[in-house]
Amino acid sequence: MNMQRAHQKVFLTYAFGGTDKYSGAQMREARTALVEQQSLNSGHFDAVAEDLMITLKEMGVSDDLLAEVAAVAAAPQHEKDVLNG
Known about the structure:
Layout: H1 2-15, H2 25-38, H3 42-58, H4 63-73, H5 76-83
Helix pairs in contact: 3-4
């Protein structure tokens, strides 16, 4: 679980503009088997994005910031990176 958290932190830091050095290559490589053998798809991506929004709301994040997060989470490039698109 610690490794999963570390991967999510790296991706979210990239997705929200904290760095421009993330290529997504490791994530695409890591997800290949999930996409090809276990049918990881946009529904799964959307579920994770929804969980992120629910968590942030429960933490008291403002509606303005939630809207910004939703826009970033919905960016097609991020889904493409996760699903090897």
